[in-house]
């Protein structure tokens, strides 16, 4: 079993410990405690308790990451929002104004980004143009040596579909457009009800390794649910191998994160002149209050922290590449490219937990993970609200990239200190989605602090 699994297992075990350890608590009293009572303590047997993550994220990482994501390299994301849903035909676009996505005009996107969709640095771009055969550039290959040239040629032959956890958009398609993420923020859109439930339902029911006989608690598309469903579901989940459990937790963490955002940037007031967006405490409580959600809410929040650690870990694995002197997060603007590099340095995270296991079994699990996750990325084309689809696609691609990194740890560890790597590479799209997806989770963790304070202030 490779080290990616090890990390998942270490984390999951610890998160699971956390959940069982808090099961016997007295019913909490205040509104804040009712959402956050179980969301504290250790997430890992190293230093990863919730409070440490909160401090690390909210005061050190979050402000830096936000600044990084405002830069040109990260704010423009190319996406095809017009791909047909591969699973069913009756998608009604909700038609709400808040679901609209405004794509960039071509003169709004910096030239360096347009010409460098698959490329990294100016030098490297030149090289690729010379070679004319290369489609993509590896994450560590920016030199002009002969060796590099060979590598570039090699990549053109490399079919990496077996490494990818997402069904990537064909960004060369005429339907693919650049979107300025800063101008199209993820927030409340009003996309809800059976259409939205159908998407979440298909994801959990068909793509999280769940047999049909096991019912999810509080599933709005199922009727007559009670405590026994909850118990059966959690004993089934506990009985799963840790990796499959991790899969469910990642999806649930992503779901929680999306719902934290829409509660934090809720449409509070609308006049003909302006719209006011802000925190909607009731919306947050309905989704995360322990009593209102029969204990589900705090579990969802813990899954959010789990997702946070997984994506952080993946980022920590690839950050060293971005520090290489010959690598630039290339936008064409030299000053900004250098600044990006400075900003991405201090995001390091220490890792501790490793596990060794059966290689064959790990391979099979990786394959299962990959196929299920690819399916989820395709389901995003069925989301009937363009804004939700945009952020759903970006975040699943980001998480898919994180998984690709974690499952490629051996390849990454064996990469040469400098010069090309034949085995592992990331496209610009993957880098942009990884950082932005993590930016979303980091923002959610920060928003939890805001909600905690707001809830405390009403009691
Ligand atoms: P839902 O969030 O729809 O959840 C359905 C059911 O799943 C719940 O009843 C519960 O049983 C279960 N559940 C809920 N949360 C979790 C969890 N974390 N883990 C496990 N199970 C859970 N809306 C916006 O306003 N803005 C957006 O940007 C946005 N993006 C979206 C992106 C995608 C891909 C999808 C599918 C939906 C998006 N939505 C967005 C809609 C939003 O997520 C909710 O579906 C909607 O607000 C309705 O919420 P709900 O309370 O009815 O339950």
From TrEMBL:
Obligatory cofactor(s): FAD
Binding site for FAD: 187, 189, 200, 252, 255, 287
One of the GO BP terms on file: transforming growth factor beta receptor signaling pathway
GO CC aspect terms: endoplasmic reticulum membrane; extracellular space; Golgi lumen
Keywords assigned by UniProt, alphabetized: Disulfide bond, Electron transport, Endoplasmic reticulum, FAD, Flavoprotein, Glycoprotein, Membrane, Oxidoreductase, Redox-active center, Signal, Transport
Compartments reported by the entry: Endoplasmic reticulum membrane; Golgi apparatus lumen
Superkingdom of origin: Eukaryota
InterPro entries linked: Ero1, ERO1-like_sf
Disulfide pattern: 94-99, 385-388
Positions of the catalytic residues: 385, 388
Pfam family, one: ERO1
Family under the similarity heading: Belongs to the EROs family.
Subunit structure, as described in the record: Predominantly monomer. May function both as a monomer and a homodimer. Interacts with PDILT. Interacts with ERP44; the interaction results in retention of ERO1A in the endoplasmic reticulum.
UniProt-listed PANTHER family: ERO1-LIKE PROTEIN ALPHA (PTHR12613:SF1), ERO1-RELATED (PTHR12613)
Name of this protein: ERO1-like protein alpha
The organism of origin for this protein: Cercocebus atys (Sooty mangabey)
Gene: ERO1A
